[in-house]
Amino acid sequence: MNKWSKIIAIPLSILGVLLTFPGVVFANVSENVNAWANAPAMRGLDSVDLKSTILQAFSRSPSVTQQAYQLGIGQAQIREAQSAWYPQVGLTANTGNSTQQDFSNSLNNAAAYGLTLSQLVYDFGKTNANVSQQKSTQESYRYKLLATMSDVAEQTATAYLDVLKYQDLTRTVEENIRALEDVRRMSSLRADAGLSTRSDVLQAQSRISGMRSTLKQYQASLSAAKAQLESLTGVKAKYYQPFAANDFDNPVVPENIDYSKIPTVLFAQTQQESASYEVSKAKSDYLPTLSLQASRTRYETNNNPYWNNQIQLHVDAPLYQGGAVSARVSQAEGRKNIAATLVDQAKLDILQKASVAYANWAGAEGQVQASAAQLQDSIRSRDVYKSEYKLNQRTLNDLLSVEQDVFQAEFSQVSAKYDSWYSLINYTTAVNNLLPQLGISQGEKQSLPDLK
Hints:
Pfam families: OEP. The chain is elongated. α7 packs antiparallel against α8 (324-390). 64% of the residues lie in helices and 13% in strands. The protein is built from ten helices and six strands; from the N terminus they run ααβααββααβαββααα. By secondary structure, it is of the alpha+beta class.
């Protein structure tokens, strides 16, 4: 039994406890009346990666749990629709004086009781259409769950990348501060030797102070990103493993998207199928319903109690209902037309998201290459400037300027890299490839992910 089967079985287990030990259960509820107000649980781990983080988010997300419960409701709705084909057995009983006008009033009775049986024989497709509609609805719940899990995975992956990004930016600022401290020490040595003024030292120190302020800003952003991820997953990690971009396929041209595997499109499609069955069910109301009805009733009369047995073929054929059936048919057809537009809307939404993500990814990839070349040029310039500064051929402003160029190139490289990864996550989510590429299998027929 997987996690989702257990979730669906939870309400039944709770019901069994309530029926067996009602006093104990309600006593525990009264003792823990404020338990609902407790803060969400948190736990610590030494290390996490993107896949384990997303799985933690699945188990914590109320929206995922709600959709899992909805699957159980859908299955119950199917069973309810199918129950129309089974015999309907009932118990009848009444008491009180009942007078039937015969010659001797011998049929007067004070009570009657018995059993009734009704068996549907044929209803011209009403029940079959209802069962098919509920099956389509239950299937739509499954795709809704998959779409919800995909959204949660995208949100969690974005939060995970935020943490990694601000970690890298923080390290970049720290490296720049160390480089500026080297410049300050160099200027201090030159000032002590009388080769430059003390203002160079103060100028370098002022630049260091500015970068330390920037460092505080990125450290605050890193703390906020970790808090966001911890809220989504319920896990506080000491180490976040690097993002394995090589495990993801590069985006393809959006025109080649396979919409038949995307949960949001499949959800809309099953809604359309459900609406089609609703039309069939509404049209079948024009036709009669045949059922076999039987009863055995005991009458307690004043003089001679007796049994009354009946078995009849019952026909329920609507002749005129003031246009109610045709109105229901028109409503069902209207809902079917609306459902058809939802399929087109789902595909357009995916195409838009995938197209924007693809364009952003391509642009970011180009920026990564450009910033890498810029960084190399800046590092070479810095080495030359340092040598020329020692020979008194460059000013401190030149050296501080080239350090700023190096920092800006490193900053651009980190930003472009993560812009590319953000776009990659957005694209793979849009085409329903995020979970499979993380190794969270959805199966050949869009089955639920394996959370082991």
